[in-house]
Specification:
TIM Barrel, alpha/beta, 20 strands, Lyase, Ornithine Decarboxylase, Chain A, domain 1, single chain, EC 4.1.1.20, Ala_racemase/Decarboxylase_C
């Protein structure tokens, strides 16, 4: 997707200079070609199984991208009322909607009783009791899955670990067993699935072997159940470091798929980052290069308000100057906001960019624009999609009027 041609940076063989011409920076750019390639890799991994791919909308909630995914048969995994409205807005069939998240409100659960998604993943005993009360009141039945927490270390950043007993998500296996026994053949609340999601940006197969092995043994231990599917979550990592270490799909196919097959249930996947993470970039412009006796700072018009992952997680994103001059230096790449933490890289060795040149931050398709903000009254960036060689604006850049429309001076 990204490469240099005659020392000029290109995305899908179009120079970044041509792409950015007449388009104010910073902006996000997505490659539909790369998205499709990623989905095809998933399909090959699960070939021979009864499976359904859901896209985790929390990774990227652009409505045009969601619609494109829907049109090629990819379902959607939602975790909030806003994402629920998004799924409806782009025309998702309820049969292709998976509902996740903890802390669901009564009004949201009520909506689910009438919407009837493919599955409503229940996070706790308390949430199930809340749902049961509403179901009885409305005399509405619903298919649910219990989110179970297998207490497995996913070997990832602690902020995106979800499968340990200290994490806020899911229930322990003993609680799940008691609820399955209690609600067995319940007239309205039908526990038909189990849901496991142990974390995000995982690059090691062992946590999946451990987690799914525990779930397989758990299913075998149940005396009575009505399970008709297993939701195995997602969390597959991508190669942010460009070290060649990506999610080991072949090992997953050889070591994890056999465990899943033993469960003998249709499978639901929830993948976001793996589908779209490496299909997006953030394009910014160098305002100027600032040199001090101690450091060289490349000051860009992009900021932590546009991409917060480096500031929030201390995460690495590969950064590409517009030209591969070969003249490398050690630099800090920073934004213009009034925060010391407004930086994308520290002491990074890359070809030295020049004033007014473009700079591209890689692997920002997931958890990029969706986590942006108006901090320091920043205006959230536009988004563009390259598809079939054409560049289409799929969300405009905010303007001052957009973010001040609530204010009525004469109130």
């Amino acid at each position: 997707m990204i490469k240099y041609y005659n020392n000029h940076l290109t995305v899908e063989d179009i120079t970044i200079a041509e792409i950015a011409k007449d388009r104010p920076t910073p902006f996000y750019l997505y490659s539909w070609q790369q998205i499709v390639k990623n989905i095809e890799r998933i399909k090959r991994t699960f070939e021979g199984l009864d499976y359904h791919i859901s896209f985790a909308a929390k990774a990227n909630n652009n409505l045009y991208l969601l619609e494109e995914l829907k049109n090629i048969g990819i379902g959607i995994d939602i975790v909030s009322e806003g994402e629920f409205e998004s799924a409806k807005r782009v025309g998702y069939d309820p049969a292709n909607v998976i509902v996740n998240g903890n802390g669901k409100t009564k009004s949201f659960l009520m909506d689910m009783l009438y919407y009837q998604p493919r599955a409503l993943n229940i996070d706790s005993k308390e949430e199930l009791e809340r749902l049961e009360e509403l179901a009885i009141k409305e005399n509405k039945s619903i298919v649910i899955a219990l989110r179970v927490n297998p207490d497995v270390d996913p070997i990832t950043h602690p902020y995106i670990s979800t499968g340990l007993k200290k994490n806020k998500f899911g229930m322990d296996l003993d609680t799940a067993s008691s609820l399955i026994n209690k609600y067995y053949q319940h007239p309205l609340v039908q526990i038909q699935g189990l849901h496991i999601h142990i974390g995000s940006q995982i690059l090691n197969i062992t946590p999946y072997e451990d987690a799914y092995g525990k779930i397989y043994e758990f299913i075998k231990s149940l005396n009575n159940h009505q399970l008709t599917f297993i939701n195995i979550g997602g969390g597959w990592g991508i190669d942010y470091l460009k070290s060649g270490k990506e999610f080991p799909l072949e090992d997953y196919r050889l070591r994890v798929i056999p465990i899943i097959k033993q469960m003998n249930l249709p499978v639901i996947l929830e993948l976001g980052r793996f589908i779209i993470g490496n299909a997006g970039v953030l394009v910014g412009r160098v305002e100027y290069v600032k040199k001090t006796p101690y450091k060289t700072f490349v000051v860009t018009d992009a900021s932590m308000a546009d991409l917060i992952r480096p500031s929030l997680y201390d995460s690495y994103h590969h950064i590409y100057p517009q030209h591969d001059t070969g003249d490398e230096g050690k630099i800090d790449i920073v934004g213009p906001l009034c925060e010391t933490g407004d930086r994308f890289a520290e002491e990074r060795v890359i070809p030295l960019p020049k004033n007014d040149e473009y700079i591209v931050i890689g692997d920002t398709g997931a958890y990029g624009r969706v986590m942006s903000s108006n901090y320091n009254f920043s205006l959230r960036p536009a988004e563009y999609l390259i598809k079939d060689g054409e560049i289409e604006e799929v969300r405009p850049r905010e303007d001052f009027k957009d973010v001040t429309s609530y204010y009525i001076k004469s109130r």
